[in-house]
């Protein structure tokens, strides 16, 4: 059996564009990751109507795009539930323009937060750690790079931001996300 991997950014972009879907690979992956971190049960197909409503005015996606989203969802669920605390974000490669990379990080995070909301994660009852992680993510959505900044330094800082995003996502998922043996989100008291 082959191991599922996160698809290539350019391949995802091509599939989404050919399906006439107005969502970027970073936005899609952020949205799916947010839904998973908010307690989505991937054993059900309840995620599809939510995704279609949010990204395509309720219209179903073409099969190739739907299969791609399923692959991304499966891969992300596996990573989020692993014990190694590794997390991949679907972003343009590091050779891409720094401004494109920064926009993609901001879009990924913004859609992650949207995914939490779409799935109904009750973040108001979250632990202090999850609230802090969410507040950090909300600040990251405002990310911007000035053309006058030292772009090499900004690239290094962006890598640090991405690592912080991963830590925040794992913190939130640990509280709200489903473990493989669960079928309902944890109850927050």
TrEMBL record:
User: By its UniProt entry, which InterPro entries does this protein fall under?
Assistant: YgfB-like, YgfB-like_sf
Q: What family name appears in the similarity comment? A: Belongs to the UPF0149 family.
* CC terms in the record's Gene Ontology section: cytosol
What is this protein called in UniProt? UPF0149 protein SAMN04488136_10120
- The coiled-coil regions, if any, are none
A single Pfam family, by name? Answer: UPF0149
């Amino acid at each position: 059996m082959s191991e599922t991997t996160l698809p290539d950014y350019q391949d995802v972009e091509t599939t989404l564009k050919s399906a006439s879907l107005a969502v970027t690979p970073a936005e899609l992956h952020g949205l799916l990751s947010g839904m998973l971190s908010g307690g989505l049960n991937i054993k059900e197909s309840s995620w599809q109507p939510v995704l279609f409503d949010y990204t395509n005015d309720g219209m179903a996606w073409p099969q190739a795009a739907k299969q791609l989203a399923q692959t991304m969802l499966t891969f992300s669920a596996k990573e989020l539930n692993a014990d190694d605390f590794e997390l991949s974000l679907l972003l343009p490669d590091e050779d891409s323009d720094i401004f494109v990379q920064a926009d993609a990080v901001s879009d990924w995070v913004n859609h992650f937060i949207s995914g939490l909301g779409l799935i109904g994660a009750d973040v108001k009852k979250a632990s202090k750690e999850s609230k802090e992680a969410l507040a950090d993510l909300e600040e990251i959505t405002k990310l911007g790079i000035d053309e006058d900044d030292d772009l090499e330094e900004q690239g290094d800082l962006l890598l640090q931001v991405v690592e912080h995003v991963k830590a925040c996502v794992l913190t939130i998922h640990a509280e709200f996300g489903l473990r493989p043996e669960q079928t309902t989100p944890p109850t927050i008291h």
